[in-house]
Write a structure and sequence with these properties.
Bound molecules: flavin mononucleotide
Helix content: 25-40%
Number of helices: 5
Number of domains: 1
CATH topology: Rossmann fold
Structural class: alpha/beta
Low-confidence stretches: none
Distance between the termini: 5 Å
CATH superfamily: Flavodoxin domain
């Protein structure tokens, strides 16, 4: 359990996705479900990273867009991440895209001052586990301590609050 001095920064996409072995339309992203559990359990503030150019609702188009954005490192976002100086703990949530975080999270996190912060990564995926995310965050969040992450299959997030509770 944590105090109120924490912030959740996360990316999540609803719409069509590969979910439990088939392509399905879902109204709320999987990572968002976990982010909301963390907020409920800790009282943390929350910031959702939104792409400036929305990904396609169609899964097959979205995966190409994601690959392209990762390759070109071109993923502008809407708005600005809140000032992180007042937070001790920063939860960072990502779906796994091609074994990595979506490029928009790089855009959001670069140039923030992570010195002395505790970063707690959480990811949802469809089989790749936490992948390279801790290593990516280690490089990106200079001066932060990257804690053990939480990973869960996107298709298993509903009803996972007690697992999240054991981790926060
Ligand atoms: C563009 C794209 C790429 C993906 N790449 C992977 C992957 O490499 N490994 C994996 O396990 N799941 C992959 N997935 C599945 C997502 O990580 C998984 O569905 C996640 O829960 C989505 O989170 P969200 O609903 O919060 O966006 C991918 C999904 C998309 C849309």
């Amino acid at each position: 359990m944590n105090n109120t001095k924490s912030l959740i920064i996360y990316f999540s996409r609803a719409d069509e996705n590969y979910f439990g072995g088939e392509i399905k339309f879902i109204n709320k992203g999987n990572t968002e479900v976990v982010a909301e559990y963390i907020k409920e359990l800790t009282g943390a503030d929350m910031f959702k990273v939104e792409p400036l150019v929305k990904y396609s609702e169609k899964y097959m188009i979205c995966i190409d867009q994601a690959k392209q954005r990762i390759k070109t490192h071109n993923a502008p976002i809407k708005g600005k991440v809140p000032d992180i100086s007042k937070y001790e703990v920063i939860y960072i949530g990502a779906p796994i895209y091609w074994g990595k975080m979506p490029e928009e999270l790089f855009t959001a996190l670069q140039n923030l001052n992570f010195e002395g912060k505790i970063v707690k990564p959480f990811v949802t995926h469809e089989g790749s586990g936490i992948s390279q995310v801790p290593q990516q965050l280690q490089k990106l969040c200079i001066g932060a301590k990257i804690s053990d992450g939480f990973e869960i299959l996107g298709s298993k997030v509903d009803g996972s609050k007690s697992k999240v509770k054991n981790w926060v």
